[in-house]
Amino acid sequence: MQRLARLLDVDEIHVTDEDGVIIYSSVGKYVGVDFRKGKQTSEFLSILEDYKESNYFVQDEQPNTAEGKVMKYVAVARRGKKGIVQVGLDPERQKKETERNTYKYIFSLFPTDEGEELFSIDCDTDTLTALSGGMPDDSIAKRYTLERFQDCTQGGLRQKKDGTYWYVVTKEYNNTLIGASIPVRVLFFKLLFNLLETLLCLVCVEIIMLVLLNYLVNKKVIIGIHQILNGLNRITDGNYDMTIEVGGNPEFEQLSRGINTMVKSVRHSSDRLAKILEMSEVPLVAFEYQEEWGHVYVTKGLKEILNLTDMDIDSFYQDKQLFINRLQEIMSHPIKGDKDIYRVTKDQYVKIHFMTEEIPYHKEALSMADLGMIPEGAYRNRKYASEGVSKTKKINRALEDILYDPQTSGGLMIAVSENDAKNLLEDLQNTIPCAKIIGYIEEKEEKSIILE
């Protein structure tokens, strides 16, 4: 019974038999109390007279029969069996509970910021019944009227006695007009603060998204592109053993496979050329290097033709300049009467032929010439000098245009004795790395200039 009393939120609960004697109670000492023996309890016997299950009785607060304790009791007839079910409430507790059901108490529980207030107006009496922060004096309370606030259900501005404007929202509930108001300046400040807070959150989200996007793009795209470009640069430098492996992206993987297949094909073509030269048993060696390369690409047989050691071969493959110096040293011993024939040893001779491409020029200049961007002076130079020029092979038209290009402050060409050429070139390359031997002078033939 005590558990049932707690569930019903009452102080006491009693059940009697058909004679009005308590047989069950949440208060143990009340069991056996006879309703017929006390003035306070006897009032409930009316429920047992002309007994009906719908009978009930509400008693005003007064001392009870059991121990003279002031209580307020309510009783109803038992269902299914004659008897009384009675509950008792402590008047002080009831009073407190009643006070909690007022708007004044409810408003006191609501947290309010600066200037905010809650109020309620009785629609029958048109009087202020509650105001958060406490009831004001009569002069202020009279300003809270239905006429002034009843049309603020959708919100509206109202001016207070001190001249400040407030934003008010009201709603009628159970014959009471409930309202909330806030100063306009506070409202605008809060709106601005909330707007800035939202904007800051959006900026933070955008920054996070940009950082994440940058990370994903860098991981999935940029790094892959750099890896492919680095690999291509090494391949361009002649490192045909280079294998490009870029994962994490299907397109990059496919591109890597394509580049590796292409390089493999070039490498196999070079190997086949070397094998053909080797099978022909002709003492012929092909070599290639470019200005930006740090090494030399050469077919087999160089060691035998130039009478080199294994150490020389290894160093030439890795250092282009050593190879060039070696060729220049050999070219310092030409055979008179024979073109491009040089002595290697007492009984061994070689023929060295340089391509026209050995003449240094800016790569951009060749690209511009290939597009037809040629100065007018080049055409006049070609017209004037071409009759004295012969070619031993077909030369790219753009390269010819560069050779005829008029340069007032262009490259400096020096003619020196063949015996001094090697030493001069070494001295020049210490400060001018692009210095080269681009030709030689012989007795005049039919044409003055020969392009090889």
Can you give keywords for this protein?
five-stranded antiparallel beta sheet, single chain, 15 helices, six-stranded antiparallel beta sheet
How would you briefly describe this protein structure?
By secondary structure, the chain is of the alpha+beta class.
Commentary on this structure:
The protein is α+β, with helices and mostly antiparallel strands and 452 residues long. Helix content is 41%, strand content 17%. It contains 15 helices and 17 strands. The chain has helices at residues 2-8, 39-42, 91-100, 103-109, 138-141, 146-149, 184-236, 250-280, 302-305, 310-318, 320-331, 363-370, 376-385, 397-403, 418-431, and strands spanning 12-16, 22-25, 56-58, 62-63, 70-77, 84-89, 117-122, 127-131, 156-159, 165-173, 176-183, 287-288, 297-298, 341-345, 348-351, 389-391, 449-451. The strands form five sheets. Strands 1, 2, 3, 4, 5 and 6 form a six-stranded antiparallel sheet that branches. A five-stranded antiparallel sheet has the order 8-7-11-10-9. β12 (287-288) and β13 (297-298) form a beta hairpin. The radius of gyration is 56 Å and the shape is elongated. The N and C termini lie far apart (121 Å). The model has no long low-confidence stretch (mean pLDDT 79).
Specify the biggest β-sheet: 6 strands, antiparallel
Span from first to last CA?
121 Å
Report the helical percentage. Answer: 40-55%
Mean pLDDT: 79
Indicate the low-confidence ranges by residue numbers. none
So how many helices? Answer: 15
Structural class: alpha+beta
What's the overall geometry? Answer: elongated
What Rg, in angstroms, do the CA atoms define? Answer: 56 Å
Strand content: 15-25%
What is the total tally of β strands?
A: 17
Oligomeric nature of the chains:
single chain
